Amino acid sequence: MTAVHRGLVSCLTQRTVVRANGYGLSIRRLLLAVAAVASLGGLMDVAAVTPASAQSFTYNPLPPRAKPPKVANDNQMLVQATEVDYDYNNSRVSAVGNVQLFYNGTSVEADKVIYDQKTKRLHAEGNVRMTDADGKITYAEILDLSDDYRDGFVDSLRVDTADQTRMAASRADRSSGNYTVFENGVYTACAPCKDDPKKPPLWQVKGARIIHDQQEKMLYFETAQLEFFGVPIAYMPYFSTPDPTVKRKTGFLMPGFTSNTPFGYGVEVPFYWAIAPDMDMTFSPRITSRQGVLFQAEYRQRLMDGAYQIRVYGIDQLDPGALAGQPGDRQFRGAVDTKGQFALNDKWVWGWDGVVMSDYYFFSDYRLSQYRDPLGSFLYLPTDALSQLYLTGVGNRSFFDARTMYWLSYSGNQSQVPIVYPVIDYSNVLNYPVFGGEFSYKTNFTNLSRDTAVFDPITTLANTASLCTTTSADPLARTPSQCLLRGVPGTYTRLTAEAQWRKSYTDPFGEIWTPFASLRADAINASISNQPGVSNYLPVGDTQAFRLMPTVGLEYRYPFINVQPWGSTTIEPIAQVIIRPNEPYAGKFPNEDAQSMVFDTSNLFSVDKFSGYDRVEGGGRANVGVQSTTQFDKGGAVKVLFGQSYQLFGLNSYTVQDTINTGLDSGLDKPRSDYVASASYSPNSTYTFSVRSRMDEQTWNVQRFEAEGRANFNRWSVSMMYGNYAEQPELGYLTRREGILTSGSIKVAANWVVTGSARWDLEANKINQYVLGAGYVDDCFVLGVNYVTSYSYSAGTAPPVLNHAFMFQIGLRTLATSTGSSSSAGYQ
């Protein structure tokens, strides 16, 4: 280049738009080379960009604009540099000094960029920084690539990706347009320390060589070591993992370890198979020291309108005798578990859950993951596995749900578990007024069957003599004074429909009057098996009945408001009068869905205080109380409610003895109910205190008392609940129950949390469940440790079993998560 030409270039603006002219071939090569720079990120799987043929070459001496223009893929590249040199003799083009290249969404910055037409190489050096359209940033000291970006090398490489993963190497060599080899490479998903960026990250993987196969999207580590805070803790001669761009990849997952008495020690080595974008499988054989290999497989598929999954399990036990006398004392054990849900449209979904097992202790004995304790531990809490098929629809003011259900009993008494086919619920609130008020209606249809009656003892004599078992020598001993009939044998069908109307008026004095009315009808068909003792509770054989319950009532409220400089207080007397006939067929039909009865302030003003449809409250009743709410201007509120219920006339439904004595010992089983009260205080968003109580109507003795306090701070939280419950002999609770339940967590450091909870039975003076745990969580690492104990109870006279479980979990973001657990049980 002549001196005159060089001087002319020096006088040009630092921003130059390049469009090929006489140097079309060189500029085309330069464009290819810039694309090669972008593709070096191919080590992180960035697609190559190849420019079209160059057509012209001009300079633009205009001053720079605030932002570089958005250049489409129309053969244009924006170059900014202190100086651009053209060496015709050596066929080189050089950009020197604060070089910036912009092309197709990718920018390259360096101290110097040279393109050699003879060798067809692009060479960038000095503070090289390349940013692609996805936000990935590549740093280097020297970058050298061929113009077709298939071969090249980079010295002192560091890559930061958009998903916060990082890789560094002393040198990276790219070959065949697909393979990138990192010498002395380091990989991590942890952010550098803000105070000291040179400090080693929480974890990193170093490898003598890290090979990135861009086509397979795999990273292969040779002579690798895993370091925590720069300290090596594990050495691996070889391992591989999908690169961070991969969300699903066929291959082995991290193993898990577990132990339990029935199978000894076990190691689980999962293999994941990405069959297609919409389906996959996981094979998880568990090799156990005592029983052999437990085969597990899970298939999942996502469709346009939903998804489903199927799990299968099977094991040919080597030592069935280890479970002698238990359901697992057999050679082959297995199960099939499936679930799915699909959307019909934006309002309707249908789905299923299903499980079939060789024996009801299979999941418990092998601590299978989907039936672990909700705390996340491997502690197994026996419950019933539910199989169901359902259809659900939700409208703006309506709801529909239909499902058929089958429970697999873990107690072994499968004949005592009902089959529900089906239960259907529908409710709707009209969006227009009827006689000026709100009109709503709801329906419920239930059909279920059970093979064998379910009796429960409620007296010491029954507990001792096992008078409630179906093998009792004297079936007449099974009477409502000795036992409860919790499940009725035979078939039970009920159709319920109820319409409700209510409207509120406020008179000139501020009094609020709310008249309401409802009409409920039940059609019942019961076919009860004549099993021993059942006739002492209900008529056996076929029985049909129609039950009608009309109701009218009036609710009155008169709020008094007192405003003070510190806040306001509202005192509101409430009275409710309900008129209706006696409950038809009270206690004469099965009670399957209304077995729970707790009377407190939450249902003081409920028109029907039964929890389900099988019982309906009858007779005239008045509910009265007073409510006070104080709101403080500086924050905080106090709410108090006190009241009582009165049976005005007719039959008191809560005095009727049915199959499970619902309502007896509830505080409602007398003309004047027990007093109920509650109070809550929230001084701010940090603290919450509440008490709930029921006191005897004559003696004021506490029949039920609960006190709860919660505190939530930035670094710690704690809660405690105290409960004291009087005996309820008609329901089988022969002694007073008293206990404390506590839980808490504290953030001991920026990322460390310690949690714990305990349940203390004050009557037995022992802690019958406690949980201790600690965990560490940040943007790249998870560590969790839990220790859990609890008692589980079996039917009959078997003593409670104390279960112990320990679980350890570690997770490295983008690499793997591994778990280990140990559990045991012993009688207490």
UniProtKB/TrEMBL annotation:
A Pfam family per the record: LptD
Gene3D superfamilies per UniProt: Lipopolysaccharide (LPS) transport protein A like domain
Record's subcellular location: Cell outer membrane
LptD C-terminal domain ranges (all copies): 332-752
InterPro entries: LipoPS_assembly_LptD, LptD, LptD_C
Key words of the record: Cell outer membrane, Membrane, Signal
Annotated function: Involved in the assembly of lipopolysaccharide (LPS) at the surface of the outer membrane.
Quaternary structure note: Component of the lipopolysaccharide transport and assembly complex.
Family assignment from sequence similarity: Belongs to the LptD family.
PANTHER family per record: LPS-ASSEMBLY PROTEIN, LPS-ASSEMBLY PROTEIN LPTD
The protein's name: LPS-assembly protein LptD
